[in-house]
């Protein structure tokens, strides 16, 4: 569970004729304490979000509606592409991985649960700096 790689996490799923239900809890289904959640929505066709790494922050990303891809790159340049398209699973992204959200469908809604409060100093926006940091 304490992977240093990005991994898909399947959530509990309560199938019900009234509508299905999934959930996740801190330090149980996802391996960190949730301090913050944010949403990405109304993304115009062809746009990307992200394009940076975090020094500390870990994230869990879910497609609440529609679909999008998450491209994750490690410090060695190895890329993994994940397609998120259902509400009953999400992508765990540890810190010190470069990640970009792309290929959003119409009406896609992205939920991100984060292990930290927002602080701009946590961002690594320069890919060469990301490589250096990851070598330490
Ligand atoms: P940012 O994380 O830079 O978006 P992206 O990586 O997709 O380009 O966030 C965009 C703006 O939103 C930035 O000015 C800071 C603000 N913001 C907050 O105030 N709180 C948050 O939790 C997040 C994620 C962003």
Description of the structure:
Helix content is 7%, strand content 41%. The protein is mainly beta and 136 residues long. The strands form 3 sheets. The protein has a 5-stranded antiparallel sheet with strand order 1-9-6-11-4, with no helix packed on it. Strands 8-7-10-5-12 form a 5-stranded antiparallel sheet. A hairpin with a 5-residue loop joins strand 7 and strand 8 (79-84). The radius of gyration is 15 Å and the shape is globular. The two termini are 23 Å apart. The relative contact order is 0.28. The mean pLDDT is 95. The site of thymidine-5'-diphosphate (TYD) has 6 residues, from strand 4 and strand 5.
How would you summarize what this structure contains?
The protein has 136 residues and is mainly beta. Helix content is 7%, strand content 41%.
What labels describe this entry?
single chain; 136 residues; mainly beta; 5-stranded antiparallel beta sheet; 1 helix; 12 strands; 41% strand; globular; binds thymidine-5'-diphosphate
